[in-house]
Specification:
Blueprint lengths: L5 E3 L2 E3 L9 H10 L11 H19 L4 H6 L15 E3 L5 E3 L8 H21 L3 H14 L9 H4 L2
Antiparallel strand pairs: 1-2, 3-4
Length: about 160
């Protein structure tokens, strides 16, 4: 999957990137399969399809296999209620803490995780035009394609 980007005054923009193709050429590209560029004349469903694929491949390459995996690793407690309300954590001071109230990541781990994700997102955007990096994107795209389709997240979509 390749989505054109444009560089202007040192910036990098993925939205409606510079493209000199005509609407007819864009329609032909849609018929051929994976689109190579966003285009202002692109149909909404094609733009949504590309955005969904890009979101999934970015999640795969920039969030998976990060420090998040360390947090995910380990033994999962057994619950008979299904919501873990029956699980209690006993800490070093003898406090019994219900599982839903336990912090599962401390501030230092969160800071490390966010830094790693930001660095991966930055790398993704900075290497996006590199053909070798595009080949890596294509490989991960095949894996991410099996994921559920994304949905608009209203908490960040609303002004």
């Amino acid at each position: 999957m390749h989505i054109c980007s444009s560089r202007s005054s040192g910036g990098h923009s993925l939205t409606h990137a510079r493209v000199t193709e005509t609407v007819t050429e864009v329609e032909k590209a849609v018929e051929r399969g994976p689109l190579r560029c966003y285009h202002p004349a692109m149909r909404k469903e094609d733009e949504e399809r590309i955005a969904a694929r890009l979101a999934k491949v970015m999640a795969m390459m920039c969030v998976r296999n990060t420090k998040l995996e360390d947090i995910h690793a380990g033994r999962v407690p057994v619950t008979k209620t299904g919501d873990y309300s029956d699980v209690i954590v006993l800490d070093a001071e003898g406090r019994k803490i219900p599982w839903p109230e336990v912090s599962h990541i401390d501030d230092a781990q969160m800071r490390e995780l966010m830094k790693e994700v930001v660095n991966r997102l930055y790398t993704f955007h900075m290497r996006f035009d590199d053909p070798e990096f595009q080949a890596r994107i294509d490989r991960w795209d095949a894996v991410a394609a099996k994921w559920d389709e994304p949905e608009i997240n209203q908490s960040i979509a609303e002004p």
